[in-house]
Automatic annotation (TrEMBL):
Source organism (scientific name): Devosia pacifica
Site (Transition state stabilizer): residue numbering on this chain: E158
Main function: Catalyzes the complicated ring closure reaction between the two acyclic compounds 1-deoxy-D-xylulose-5-phosphate (DXP) and 3-amino-2-oxopropyl phosphate (1-amino-acetone-3-phosphate or AAP) to form pyridoxine 5'-phosphate (PNP) and inorganic phosphate.
Active site, renumbered: H43 (proton acceptor), E75 (proton acceptor), H199 (proton donor)
Keyword check for Cytoplasm: yes
Listed EC numbers: 2.6.99.2
Record flagged with keyword Hydrolase: no
Pathway: Cofactor biosynthesis; pyridoxine 5'-phosphate biosynthesis; pyridoxine 5'-phosphate from D-erythrose 4-phosphate: step 5/5
Name of this chain's protein: Pyridoxine 5'-phosphate synthase
Amino acid sequence: MTALSVNLNAVAQLRNRRDLPWPSVTGIARIALDAGAAGITVHPRPDGRHIRRADVHDLAELIAAEYPHAEFNVEGYPTDEFLELATSVSLHQVTLVPDDPQQATSDHGWDFRGKANFLADIVRGLQADGRRVSLFCDPDAGPDDISAARDTGAARIELFTGPYGGCIEDEDAAAHELEAMRRTVDDALAKGLAVNAGHDLTLGNLPAFKTVLPEIAEVSIGHGLTADALILGFGEAVRQYRAILETD
Ligand SMILES: CC(=O)[C@@H](O)[C@H](O)COP(=O)(O)O
Ligand SMILES: NCC(=O)COP(=O)(O)O
């Protein structure tokens, strides 16, 4: 079974359009967890464009108090500020991502060989207190990269699935991406790393992904799931507004 961790960045970004408390990030977290999601993911960025520090604290408190079996996964580049936030709340997994502060979104995995010592120190510190660390990884990472990822001491890698998610209506390209990820996953599993995955996964591309890569421990999905939720729920919202307006 692959666990679904719902990424709430897009919900927070929608809320931040106004100085109003909706959509509520903790409210949508409740809906996701009540629907059986295994966990919640957030990726606070230095400019606070979506998830804010307060959201991380509120979600950690909600999960600890009301959803003790759910996992809270916090992603980000390990600045001092990020590490202070990640270690000041109750969470289960920290996913380290090599993002530049200016980046629009995550678009590559770690250079594991080049950053070996930097990552090993941070992984040791985070895992010493019982947090699991996952490291963002290119989908076609080679054997030397995976060995270096394992040598950091991290328990997991997270495959960057953006190139696969970007294969819109191109089955050959999608199959090529799946093959590359299959090789990376085989190597990682053989070296004792568990594998997460995420970025641009959707209802449309998840079935083939799950068929080819059934051993993925967890996928985190936000943008696509939020877009699908709008489509699945927009009609009902319109019906409820009409029910108020169309009475005489
Ligand atoms: C690490 C990763 O893959 C990202 O998907 C990230 O969590 C999304 O970040 P944004 O929501 O800021 O694009
Ligand atoms: N860790 C990856 C993740 O959370 C995916 O986010 P999204 O691309 O689905 O928004």
